[in-house]
Amino acid sequence: MRAIVLLQKIKNKTARIGVIGLGYVGLPLVIEFGKSKFSVTGLDIDQNKIDLLSKGESYINHIPRKSIESLIKNGNFQASTDFSLIRELDCILICVPTPLSKNREPDMTYIVATAEKIVPHLSHNQLIVLESTSYPGTTLEVLVPQLERSNMKADHDFFIAYSPEREDPSNKDYNTATIPKVIGADHPKSLELANILYSSIVKKTVLVSGTKVAEATKLLENIFRSVN
């Protein structure tokens, strides 16, 4: 029943979308959801980014200022450093960096720190989607345990999925809306919710059997692109 309510909100575009991390991954998502008439909240710890967005300015070269200005004009976007706004949201997309450490190992600092900011404000029936590039198992082994410190259970009290950011550098024919979106979840309801959500802004979704598979897909794509 809980999933049905959220599903209907997504379908009729009354679901409130939150994007955490307003860099080259998060900001294009904000724009696409805004263009699709969703109410969007962008969250970031960088006050300078928030100030620029609030004035309708872009700080990413391939994102024109007019894209930000249109969001502001439509009145369905707010940018903030106040993570307590999470409790007002229905779907939360995590788009924070996952750099390599000095030992060339995945640095989970930003994912863990983001989860810690979410936990005090996590509410029942919210959909949490990780988009950050990482190794297979990150969603289940790093993100979920942190979120469950809220005394809520993943895929029961809240829904969880993984859908990696994808890009086709230097190819002007493909962008956030036209590149097929890979989506993985470990519960059918979470997968259904994430699929309906992303289907609202992209032309094609590709569903896989779980979060680990989706995470592996992203690594394979990055390695292929790097080699070539």
Can you characterise this structure?
By secondary structure, the chain is of the alpha/beta class. The protein has 8 helices and 8 strands. The chain has helices spanning 2-11, 26-35, 47-54, 65-74, 109-118, 138-147, 188-199, 211-227; strands spanning 16-20, 39-43, 77-80, 91-94, 127-130, 159-162, 181-184, 205-208. The protein has a 6-stranded parallel beta sheet with strand order 3-2-1-4-5-6, sandwiched between helices. Strands 7-8 form a two-stranded parallel ribbon. Helix 1 (2-11) runs parallel beside helix 7 (188-199). 38% of the residues are buried. The model has no long low-confidence stretch (mean pLDDT 92).
State the end-to-end CA separation: 47 Å
Number of helices: 8
* Biggest sheet overview: 6 strands, parallel
Mean pLDDT: 92
Strand order of the largest sheet: 3-2-1-4-5-6
Instruction: Catalogue the unreliable spans.
Output: none
Beta strand %: 5-15%
Gyration radius (Cα, Å) is 16 Å
Strand-pairing-aware structural class:
alpha/beta
Q: What is the succession of H and E elements?
A: HEHEHHEEHEHEEHEH
Helix content: 25-40%
Shape, principal axes of CA atoms: globular
Secondary structure: number of strands = 8
